[in-house]
Automatic annotation (TrEMBL):
Higher taxonomy: Eukaryota, Viridiplantae, Streptophyta, Embryophyta, Tracheophyta
Name of this chain's protein: Cupin type-1 domain-containing protein
Organism: Linum tenue
Pfam families registered for this protein in UniProt: Cupin_1
Domain of life: Eukaryota
InterPro entries linked: Cupin_1 (IPR006045), RmlC-like_jellyroll (IPR014710), RmlC_Cupin_sf (IPR011051)
Domain Cupin type-1: 1-58
């Protein structure tokens, strides 16, 4: 069993060779949503960490961050 705090970005990966079954439940009727682009790319997460996580290079991460930057 895993418990994820509200708003925490998470994922699951089946590293096995057979099918996996997942059951999820929310702690309230109003669980809400989180914008992943803003949560991931508009924060202080290091570019190298994001690049490794998404199996890309730092240049792509910088382009994504630039596209999500707040326009003055």
């Amino acid at each position: 069993m895993f418990v994820f705090p509200k708003g925490l970005v998470h994922f699951q990966y089946n590293a096995g060779t057979s099918y996996a079954i997942a059951l999820s439940a929310f702690g309230s009727a109003s669980a809400g949503t989180v914008s992943l682009p803003g949560t991931l790319f508009a924060t202080g997460i290091d570019n190298a960490v994001l690049a490794k996580s998404f199996k890309t290079d730092v240049g792509v991460i910088q382009k994504l961050k630039a596209g999500l930057a707040v326009k003055p």
